């Protein structure tokens, strides 16, 4: 079982390196806007471009803007990825019948992250230095060491300096990192999403046994009530229900164990507090089933946390899904809005991921920090 962990460190590039970082950011922003402009122009002329086509366009654009050659190629690819994931996020919101503006061109202020995915970096843990391809060496403060297989590094310009975010994958069995905290948002579309970008799929135990259950239900209904055969058939049906029940419990035990083993602090919403309706589904029945399952998950977390010395913090759920985790602006959403798109700062992210970051920030009493749209990893437990 792999967990995805992200480590955030302050970074201190020297003056020359900072110039290169700013230039690279500017070039990436140019590329983002250029590709968006061409997509819009194509649409106006009645045809649509595909992701692979804008990807291929990067190569030919290098003649037009030689500065592109000074940026690591994978970083440029990620610019195209970001553009397309923003487009996907917006079109998803549109499909739900919500009005939303066109994708905006990025101003220099809003374009602030270089995404080194899989390659183009070297971490020197001993000296707390990361060397980025085409940028150079950047000193960081590694107050806690990062562990695991590094999947990618983001380097971000913020109003108060530079940050790097290291995304690493690691086995749960590794010892708990001291000081690591996580926010978990339980939801309807997936079982939960956490602030490290991990999406746990809803288990479908009932659905998996549904054919069997239907058959047995028919078998029960065909038999004479209270006859021996009826009792036998009913026993068989009860066994299947019990099996599903055990599978669910098993899942919740495993999941809570993973979180408790991985984090020193776990933040969740306080389900006892009113205002959870912004979380529930439309029908009362469904909502109550979900809240029972969430309640069980939290109680498993709670007693496992206590014996493992992990802190479990329950935060007020008010506005956790509405606040922009990047800037604090309130972005009203209905239940069907799956995407958080902030008109104030331009931050676009999965709705539940945005909520998970808020839950973590509130629970650990942290100030707002720049949040990066990171690739979410879908996992089934
Ligand atoms: Zn915002």
What does this structure look like?
There is one protein chain. About 40% of the residues lie in helices and about 20% in strands. It is of the alpha+beta class and about 375 residues long. A hairpin with a 3-residue loop joins strand 9 (about 190-195) and strand 10. Helix 2 crosses helix 3 (about 75-95), helix 5 (about 210-220) packs antiparallel against helix 6 and helix 6 packs across helix 7. The radius of gyration is 24 Å and the shape is globular. The termini are close together. The chain binds zinc ion (ZN). Zinc ion binds near residues 324, 326, 327, 342 and 347.
- Give the domain tally: 2
Mean pLDDT: 86
How much helix is in the residues?
Answer: 40-55%
- Strand proportion, as a percent range, falls in 15-25%
Beginning-to-end CA distance, first to last residue: 8 Å
**Spatial shape:** globular
| Biggest beta-sheet profile | 7 strands, antiparallel
Alpha-beta classification: alpha+beta
Oligomer: single chain
Number of helices: 8
